[in-house]
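Run folding on both entries below.
>entry_1
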Amino acid sequence: MTTPAGDIATPSAGHLFRVFLRLGVGAFGGPAMVAFIRRNVVEQRRWLTDRDFREGVAVCQALPGATSMQLSAWVGLQMAGVNGAAAALIGAGLAAAFPVVLGYIGDRYPAQSGTAFSAIFFIALIGNMTINKSFGFLAQSHGIQQYPKVMLGCLLASLILLSLVVKQLPGRTAPAAAPETIPS
């Protein structure tokens, strides 16, 4: 394990989970997330030196898969061992729960499956891409400091929209009871 680069105490697995959950929720994917992780881990928290971080990026890029997810686990491993790696990886990966939630909604409301559900999924993806592009613009023009405020606003808007959509969807109905037969 690496000791933090500055005078900051070594983070716990729980702290790593929370930090990478925040990063994962705001993730827009791709190698650009490495810069956000670097800013958080090297510049703001001083958990790693720039050289240590670059070495970690090199190792993670040599492996198949999403570099940002691997880098999350690598930072967690450096800071708090295997528990830290697991905590950081789970925290960063929880944002991937979105498709699982959509799958649950599709299972819960089978009448909405097919074309209607595909249209809902398509609209959600377009919204996600729009938000991601907006976050990239925000980070470039106003700095990353405004990011948490925008994330909270988007989360609130998403929850409001979700509650409106769920109210409109018909729920499952109980199966009709079999008629009682009177014994003769």
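>entry_2
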Amino acid sequence: MKKPKSKTPPPESPSVKSFLPAAIILMLLGWGGLIAIIIYIEPHGGARWAFFFTGVLAFTGTALPAMAYLNQRFPSSPPASSGIIVRQSIWIGIYLPTLIWLGFGGVFEPFLALLLGVGLLLIETFLRLRERAQWKPEARTDRKSQ
């Protein structure tokens, strides 16, 4: 007799709620640090690096729930894991402070912003393609006991 195959639900991306504690901590540290740096510190080399670091924290924390929502709303195959969602948030967290940094130096150009954005998008696309191309054997549940 054949055993009925157990149907497991397809895997999903993690929920937005699971990212909220990390997002709140990152936003508090990032935005709080940015406000403190802007108000209390004179702009020089170290302060610019602190601005960049806290900017990455702030924008990563802000992007984290948005990326979790977008990955749930537009599912992919395979579904995005929590590591992928964090990585996508970090891309945004690096991209936006980099544009602000370029503006401080007076070298910001819209074409450069577009070029950097397309470059980061291509890197993420290639990483997702690599994850999709990896062969993962499915667990067989219909083996006969010996």
